[in-house]
Write a structure and sequence with these properties.
With 1244 residues, the protein is α+β, with helices and mostly antiparallel strands. Helix content is 38%, strand content 14%. The longest helix has 32 residues. The termini are far apart. One of its GO terms (biological process) is DNA recombination.
Length: 1244
């Protein structure tokens, strides 16, 4: 190994381009004494060296392995560097596919020509490499990278942390921002309340006494007295340090002052075109931090780069970036003075450094930056962006939430504010590269607050932007590790591979940066495994040692895969969703492309009444009030469908559901209002209550029935229309007839002082008045009692009715919710002007009914006329029924209000919730627990509402956005507040709402660990899917070339396909279906087609045989006793003609009638035949097939059932067929004899 390393070092002695490095590595890999090395040797075609663990068995029928010798040929024209570098990357992929885990290296790699998908892989890798190559980044030579590898420390993001140096005032000051650009604002001005309160009260941030460190940690200030003084003077000028009296310094439990350290790390800054070394001042606040609890700030909102790989765009879209950076956010904001005593540095300076009296010694303190800085700075910048610049919070990308569903995104990471815009390409040009409004607002806020921004880093409408350390190319649709970091990572990895002795530190450095890069393409993480135990090993012994060969392999694989550390944001969503599952014995897969119809709905023909089957395509259709999807011809059919107690033809699958109900009292004989409300849907209508339906309020039966209707719990609205005849004010006034005569009108029964009726009325009249009073009072009392929130009541009487003077009305009129809707029938299609008032508490009603009459042409008069017998005719009585439009307006008003109240949706939610509660109760213990169950059920119902057919892609997109911030899996949670701790509970995914098709179920050939089997199940599905595609392409090709499809049978693919393909036979046609089809054919005037169907059925003709039949092929026998059907060439007759004899008299008659129309014909009846006869008739080449077909067909027929609309149309059309014949001579059945042969009947 060390020999190899020495050779590798020599090769890496100078700067090289990334491709060059990989090409060189490919040359060297073959001599690497490790498994990867052996594999590379075999791949190159040289076979494994003796002694290596190898196997002759190699899987070679997948996408991988790609034969590298073929790759060399494929890329011949690109030059050797390209070909070798691509080979180097592909070799790693091959290795991962074949030899990961403990699989042995293949002895020889089988030769295999490139398939099209493999070519795509090669092109993809080549493009990735040239993308990196074209960036111009170079990989630094071994020696330089070795220095970096050894010296730099790194933080969690892979950023190097350099060694602390002593402070040099000049260098420190050079790195600081100018005077007036630091400590410009109070932090508290930009914080949400809970953080501001903490910040104003440092004591609340201290840990409880018992958690204080027993010994105060010590951190020293790395500076001479002289330099320290200079630093403090400059810091004071900039507001970066304040004086702290030694008395005030915070003391630990034993009274020891807690003071912090300071130092510097080197930083290179270009000043006047020259690179100068400066120092970044570092305050080491470890001592004071040890006494504080972390503030619960906004650090939890930090975005995570993996989440950004979920961005997506169509091919014609671009992402634009607008970006701002604060020059030094941690220095911009001052924290309250109360904190200063915790922030002192452990080195006194003369007070004169702060402009104070010389001679007094003070501690300098830093007014910013400590344990909670990240939490606080993130909170400050979020407040600047969302509160001050009014950017929508919904656009924020944070690991707390799913990626926002918008083309505008906001990414805040401490001092940087990036916003992303997704635009159509054309749109982008029109924009003329201007900044977005949001961005402009943010700049404005920063200017106002005097917060300096780093203008050199500003991006406006840029298609290339750095985000979270990654490079977003909004044009290409690519988000990945930036090219300079790629080159750097390659340099580090190749440098590490050249070291014979590795330290824990070097490994950690590489792995830190590698894992950062892998975030841009998560699957690469699978490369690393051995390095982690190697790091632990090194840490335990704290030494340098030669690395294990497997770890060298892993490092080299990282090196090879650096060019593909990116994600394509233009990757398309698949049209198919798949699930796979595995058990120890077998696996399976199912796919879906659409959702199921909503739960508990019927798939019915909307043109046909679901209950009685009558055709209602030309009529108003009543929907099922529970929205099960069924449609009805009448209110009675709706009620039959919904009535739980009555058997219904088309029973409602949602019978148990309780939609809001409406009831009409005193509806009149036709109850148009009830019908209008029923037609609206989503409201269940009670049977109308009226004397005309035998419901008399003045009998016990009628009363109890009315009470029952009123007590209905689901009742939400009632309308009352009590009898009004005896309430007219016109009574008693003289009537002028048409001819000018004036006669006495009907006698008055009440007046303002005798509202309940005159006491002197004759007995019979008084009884009638009392009855009408009772009806009105019943209605009005109900109005008083029913008035509960979201329950509506209305009553209607003519505008000039005495009823409006009743005390009960006057009382209700005082209530705020009650109002009159006054209008005239003429405005709703009525024939006369007749004014009414609807009084009640349905808020939407007046908008619909209270119309100022504009006057109408052609109204009928209200003139009273006298019949010959002397009785009077009151035309207004003809208007006793509401005109239809009045009813529809009322129904619309009611629907509007109930929708506003969300009554129906609430009912659906409640029903679905109940369903899920039942399901969950039988689920795992975790989900069956009560509070969890309820929360989960509610969430599922909410989710389900989005899973509508045609919304599948939108749903898949939403799933993609909801992937965890790591960009790998999607999980759903509900948050439950239990006592004080919020608890997250996982919610199952509603997979049951997809319309799954099982495509695969298979037993395993070999045992395996369940994890492995699960993964294999995915692989089997993917393979089968590509197989389907390839087979389809092949068959298509055969078809185009005119080759027989049976050629497909010669391929291995076909056999594989057959293995997992379950043939399903077509269902045989039944006689009633054929009858129906014939009826339809006759209806459309296609008589010969109808005959053909009958002949085809009778003679068991194949479709192709039916299609080639002409009238010449039908030969009639003399004396009407049969006909012969001649089949010129059939599938099973080897080209010889076959003749079939038809003896069914009706069919013969029908044929004669159509082919040579002379006489009438009769109804065709299916003849009963024996199986043997059928077999002969069907002319199967193999008896066994025939029997199988007939048996299975019969069995299938027995199980097959029509859906209601199917049954209906078959019935309709076969009935039509019955009506067609002129002389319907319904014949008796005669056993069909048939003769089959090539000669005998042909002569006839
Ligand atoms: Zn019906
Ligand atoms: Zn229904
Ligand atoms: Zn009108």
């Amino acid at each position: 190994m060390s020999l190899w390393m020495a050779r590798w070092r020599r090769c890496r002695s100078h700067e090289q381009s990334p491709s060059k490095v990989l090409a060189e590595l490919w040359r060297h890999l073959r001599s690497l004494p490790s498994k990867l090395g052996h594999f590379s040797l075999a791949s190159a075609g040289d076979g494994v060296p003796p002694g290596a663990e190898s196997s002759v068995r190699v899987r070679s029928d997948d996408l991988l392995p790609i034969d590298l010798r073929e790759v060399a040929t494929y890329l011949l024209d690109e030059g050797s560097t390209v070909a070798n570098s691509v080979a180097c990357v592909l070799n790693t992929l091959n290795y991962l596919a074949l030899c990961s885990g403990h699989a042995p290296v293949p002895t020889v790699m089988p030769e295999r020509p490139l398939t099209n998908p493999q070519k795509q892989v090669i092109d993809h890798v080549r493009q990735a490499l040239s993308h990196l190559e074209n960036s111009g980044e170079q990989v630094a030579p071994f020696a330089r990278m070795a220095d970096e590898l050894r010296e730099a420390k790194f933080d969690y993001a892979g950023e190097p942390i350099l060694m602390m140096e002593d402070l040099d005032a000049e260098q420190v000051i050079a790195a600081w921002s100018a005077v007036g650009q630091a400590a410009v604002q109070e932090a508290t001005a930009f914080l949400p309340d809970h953080i501001r309160d903490k910040l104003n009260d440092p004591r609340s941030c201290l840990l409880p006494l018992h958690e204080w460190p027993s010994r105060t940690p010590v951190s020293k200030v790395r500076a001479s007295d002289e330099e320290w003084h200079k630093v403090v003077v400059a810091a004071h000028e900039r507001g970066l340090m304040v004086p702290l009296d030694p008395e005030d310094v915070f003391k630990d439990a034993s009274g020891v002052p807690v003071l912090n350290g300071a130092g510097a790390v080197p930083k290179f800054k270009t000043i006047g075109g020259q690179k100068r070394k400066c120092q970044r001042f570092i305050s080491n606040l470890i001592p004071s931090n040890a006494f504080q609890a972390r503030i619960d700030g906004d650090d939890k909102y930090l975005p995570y780069l993996g989440q950004l790989t979920l961005l997506e765009q169509e091919s014609d879209q671009v992402w634009l970036t607008d970006s701002e950076d604060f020059t030094s956010s941690f220095n911009l904001f001052k924290i309250p003075a109360a904190w200063h005593n915790l922030m002192g540095f452990g080195k006194l300076v003369d007070a004169s450094a702060f402009g104070g009296p010389a001679g007094r010694k003070v501690y300098p303190a830093i007014p910013m930056g400590w344990l909670s800085s990240v939490a606080v700075v993130q909170a400050i910048v979020r407040s600047l962006v969302f509160d001050h610049a009014a950017v929508l919070r919904l656009t924020e990308v944070t690991k707390m939430r799913a990626l926002p569903d918008s083309g505008d995104l906001t990414v805040i990471y401490l001092d940087s504010f990036d916003e992303l815009r997704r635009l159509e390409k054309g749109c982008k040009e029109a924009l003329d590269e201007s900044m977005s409004d949001r961005h402009a607002r943010f700049l404005q806020v920063c200017r106002e607050k005097g917060l300096p921004l780093n203008e050199s880093k500003r991006l406006v409408a840029s298609t290339r932007g750095t985000l979270q350390g990654g490079l977003l190319d909004g044009d290409l649709g690519r988000y990945g590790l930036s090219p300079d970091k790629m080159a750097n990572l390659m340099g580090l990895a190749s440098s590490l591979a050249g070291h014979e002795q590795w330290s824990e530190f070097m490994l950690r450095h590489l792995v830190g940066k590698a894992t950062f890069g892998m975030c841009f393409r998560r699957p690469i993480f699978s490369v690393l495994q051995g390095v982690f135990s190697e790091i632990q090993c090194r840490a335990a012994f704290n030494d340098m040692a030669a690395p294990a060969a497997t770890v060298v392999d892993e490092v080299l694989m990282v090196l090879c895969l650096v060019p593909v550390m990116f994600t394509s944001l233009k990757a398309a969503l698949d049209d198919e969703v798949a699930v796979t599952d595995a058990s120890p014995s077998g696996g399976g897969a199912a796919v879906a492309t659409r959702f199921k119809p909503p739960p508990l709905t019927v798939d019915s023909d909307p043109r046909v009444c679901h209950e009685c089957g009558s055709d209602c395509s030309n009529r108003a259709r009543y929907p099922c009030p529970a929205e099960c999807g069924a449609m009805f011809c009448s209110l009675a059919c709706v009620m039959g469908h919904r009535d739980v107690d009555r058997p219904a033809a088309g029973e409602c699958p949602r019978r148990a559901w309780r939609p809001p109900r409406f009831g009409e009292r005193f509806s009149g004989p036709r109850a148009p209002l009830s019908h209008a409300v029923a037609l609206e849907g989503r409201i269940e209508v009670q049977p109308p209550f009226d004397l005309h339906f035998g419901l008399d309020m003045f009998t016990d039966h009628g009363r109890s029935e009315l009470q029952r209707l009123m007590d209905d719990e689901d009742l939400v609205a009632e309308h009352w229309a009590p009898e009004c005849k005896l309430f007219s004010r016109a009574r008693g006034r003289p009537i002028t007839l048409e001819d000018g005569r004036t006669i006495q009108g009907p006698q008055p029964v009440r007046d303002g002082r005798h509202l309940m009726g005159f006491p002197w009325l004759p007995h019979e009249t008084r009884a009638r008045v009392r009855q009408s009073n009772n009806m009105v009072l019943k209605a009005l009392k109900r109005g008083k009692d029913v008035n509960r929130p979201n329950r509506y009541w209305t009553v209607e009487h003519p505008y000039r009715s005495w009823m409006w003077d009743f005390t009960l009305v006057k009382e209700l009129e005082q209530e705020p919710d009650f109002s009159h809707a006054v209008g005239s029938l003429c405005c709703f299609g009525g024939q006369r002007e007749k004014w009414f008032s609807f009084f009640g508490d349905l808020p939407t009603l007046p908008q619909h009914l209270a119309i100022d009459c504009p006057g109408h042409q052609g109204l009928l008069s209200c003139q009273v006329t006298q019949r010959a017998d002397g009785t009077l005719v009151y035309p207004t009585e003809e208007e006793a029924e509401y005109p239809w439009r009045l009813c529809t307006e009322y129904a619309a008003a009611l629907t509007e209000q109930l929708n506003l109240d969300g009554r129906f949706d609430a009912m659906v939610s409640a029903e679905r919730e109940r369903y899920y509660l039942d399901e969950l109760a039988q689920s795992t213990g975790r989900l069956a627990a009560t509070p969890v169950k309820e929360a989960v059920a509610a969430t599922l119902v909410k989710e389900e509402a989005h899973l509508c057919q045609t919304e599948e892609r939108a749903h898949l997109r939403a799933l993609l956005r909801a992937a965890t911030y790591r960009g790998t899996d999607v999980r759903f949670f509900v948050e439950l507040d239990t006592e004080d701790q919020p608890e997250l509970h996982e919610v199952p995914y509603l997979a049951l709402r997809w319309d799954w098709k099982t495509i695969l179920a298979f037993p395993w050939k070999e045992d395996g660990h369940i994890n492995e089997l699960e993964l294999n199940a995915v692989a089997v599905y993917l393979k089968r899917r590509s197989l389907d595609k390839q087979l389809a392409e092949f068959i298509d090709l055969l078809y185009q070339e005119g080759e027989p499809i049976s050629y497909a049978g010669s391929s291995q693919y076909f056999r594989n396909w057959q293995r997992c393909y379950v043939p399903s036979r077509a269902l045989p046609a039944s006689w009633d279906l054929v009858e129906g089809l014939m009826g339809l054919a006759f209806h459309n005037g296609q008589r010969s087609f109808g005959l053909l169907l009958a002949l085809g059925f009778n003679c068991l003709l194949r479709t192709s045989e039916m299609l080639s039949l002409t009238h010449k092929h039908v030969v009639f026998h003399p004396r009407r006793n049969g006909l012969s059907v001649v089949i010129p060439g059939s599938k099973t007759s080897q080209g010889n003609p076959q003749v079939l004899l038809v003896t069914d008299r009706q069919l013969v008659q029908l044929a004669k009638d159509i082919i040579c129309p002379t006489s009438g014909w009769g109804y065709v009846v299916l003849s009963v035949v024996t199986v043997d006869a059928t077999v002969t008739r069907g002319r199967w080449s193999c008896n066994k097939t025939a029997r199988q077909y007939i048996d299975e067909g019969t069995a299938q027929l027995a199980h097959a059932s029509w859906s209601a609309p199917q049954r209906h149309s078959v019935r309709t059309w076969s009935r039509f067929l019955l009506r067609v014949p002129r002389e319907a001579t319904v014949a008796t059945q005669a056993p069909a004899n048939c003769a089959v042969g090539s000669h005998d009947s042909f002569l006839g």
